[in-house]
Amino acid sequence: MSELSESKYIKKSFPVTGMSCAGCAASVGSTLKSTKGVEDADVNFATHTAWASFDPDQVSLEDLKSALQGVGYDAIIEEENASEKQEEAQLKAFNEIKRSLIGSAILTIPVFIIGMFFMDWAIGKYISLPLSAIVLFYFGGHFFKGAWKQAKHGMANMDTLVALSTGIAFSLSVFNTFFAEFWTSRGLEAHVYYEAAVVIITFISLGKYLEEKAKTNTSSALKKLVGLQPNSTTVIVEGKEEVIPITAVKKGFQILVKPGEKIPVDGTVISGNSFVNESMITGEAISVEKVKGQKIFAGTINQKGSFVFTADKVGGDTLLASIIARVKEAQGSKAPVQKLVDKIAGIFVPTVMVIALITFIVWLILGGENALTQGILSAVTVLVIACPCALGLATPTAIMVGVGKGAENNILIRDAESLEKAHKVNAVILDKTGTITEGKPSVKSESWFDENNIVKSILYSIENKSEHPLAEAVIQHLKGEGLDKIELEDFQSITAKGVKAKFENQTYLVGNRALLTEHAVNFSAEQNKLVQELEQERQSVIYFSNENKLLAILAVSDQIKENAKLSIANLQQQGKEVYMLTGDTEAIAKNVADQVGIKHVKSQLLPSDKSNFVKELQAQGKIVAMVGDGINDSEALAQSDVSIAMGKGSDIAIDVAKMTLIGSDLQNLPKAFHLSAITIRGIKQNLFWAFIYNVIGIPIAAGLLYPINGFVLNPMIAGAAMAFSSVSVVLNSLRLKGMKL
């Protein structure tokens, strides 16, 4: 294809409604791909979104929508409120499934009691019939609709198996209710199987409910990211302030930012100065000083000062908008663990149907006197014993126990996907600030050369008036010493150097080395040696002096968490490569990495750099876990195979992540990987038990033992075997509760 023709194609994402399983997603994908003018397309069932790369000269979004409507689905192509409409559709689907689950459960109880304990009660079957009909065709109607939709396209899924087994069991029961003499005249009992049909619907509805519950939270992280941008802002028009909506801001506008306000768009400072909290970009707790000519970014938060800047990037071009887009794209690339079950069901269903048909034909040919009746019963028995109840419970029950076990150990898990992949992780990326370190600067050491309460009170008072982010660390350090605030004179903030003030006609300085050098403050050999040692340790140094001599040196740093080194050693013992990524300087990053035993370090990274590094590792075939706590980590978290947030981190990091470690103890990280291993082992065991009954039961149900010993499996016994398979799956899941992490 030529470059010219390639340039014609545009890529668009849009929500799709009406999908109930991974088979539906495959149907949507194939429909889009087969539409004329579409180069490529894909569907994500977890987020109910699709994308298509198409030639707008040959096909439009309206055409794609029409194509999907033609096969029973729909698309939301209005760009302005597509996400809101999709959320409404998902919420409606969730509420519908919840209502169906509650309704079917209430009506199933009396049917189950009658079928299991009062099976000889003559009136019982006439009570069970209408209750079962409501459960199947009203509360469980979506299974039959889904099965019909799949059948129209020559496909089969879990809905097909549920509809087929329950439909035949119900139909046979209705026949036996009104035409019992058909069987009794032939010396056979006319059993009804209403309880089997309704229990299947109720249990499978429970699995669907758990699945949909996880899906309803997919957009919350994006909402909070969007919420970082203010709705309005103050612009300077002909020297006057005017408040306008954020959507009206154009490139080149002059915007005034006041203390405490969120910065609306990306730009360059043209007057004034302040400190800006850029933790959403860098993850660093220390705010950054902004003066004329420096860049600022949408979503970051201004501190105490005011400034005017020129808008450089607005709308979808801002750094915040790109983070939102990347998070959305990375989230859309996920698929739930349930797709494995749907794939198995896609093969399992037609296989069972063929076996049931073959069973009927073989009995018809070789069955002798009762060939027809035994053929029907055996075929139905095959379908009943092959019911997917245990299959439907295999994943959700193990996940429920695994999630509960995690909660007991301070590990919150959002979905099955993270548990599915976590035990496969071989590369772990750790953010520095707030993950390995505490995320809050504090005074690590202090050296006083003229220590008395008056001198300390002067420093305490100066730092209380300072806007520098490190000042808060000094204030908190001195707060417990009972110092008084002193009235200072001539307080001045000196850009990029520090502050100075007067007390009793004496000038005092607080800031960096450059400030003291400018005022010709001398250092002794001992003091110079101390400074060199602190710089080698890569500490942030605050100098306090008067006009003549140095009064104190304070070293400020972000403390490493207590269990960080041990946790990282445990991860390395598990065979995982550990990487540290940070927006901080190379020197500080290397110092922290050396202390905790990490060999692979990347520093001075933007959010996109972190996300790109995750992609690099994934391109090498690694299964990557990202652990972070800040807004700046959200891109990388969304891109990673397993995303883990620290519980004391930002809401957005927690929302994007599929796992959250409550508190700040990194020891929970190795536990999370172990939890994944035992839960996935439980799911595999459950799937084994769910199928072993079919492997053994289906041949017996078909009549394999009849030529040997005359044994024919009754559908009622088949129903009991099906129920026992479900019980064994649940009991095996509960067994996980007793395991230690």
UniProtKB/TrEMBL annotation:
Molecular-function GO terms, alphabetical: ATP binding; ATP hydrolysis activity; copper ion binding; P-type divalent copper transporter activity
Single GO biological process annotation from the record: copper ion export
InterPro entries, A to Z: ATPase_P-typ_cyto_dom_N, ATPase_P-typ_P_site, ATPase_P-typ_TM_dom_sf, ATPase_P-typ_transduc_dom_A_sf, ATPase_P-type_domA, HAD-like_sf, HAD_sf, Heavy-metal-associated_CS
GO cellular component: plasma membrane
Organism: Marivirga arenosa
UniProt keyword list: ATP-binding, Cell membrane, Membrane, Metal-binding, Nucleotide-binding, Translocase, Transmembrane, Transmembrane helix
Family as reported in the entry's similarity comment: Belongs to the cation transport ATPase (P-type) (TC 3.A.3) family. Type IB subfamily.
Annotated protein name in UniProt: Heavy metal translocating P-type ATPase
PROSITE patterns named in the record: ATPASE_E1_E2, HMA_1, HMA_2
The organism's place on the tree of life at top rank: Bacteria
Residues passing through the membrane, by range: 101-123, 129-148, 160-180, 192-210, 344-366, 372-395, 687-706, 712-734
Membrane topology label: Multi-pass membrane protein
Keyword Nucleotide-binding: yes
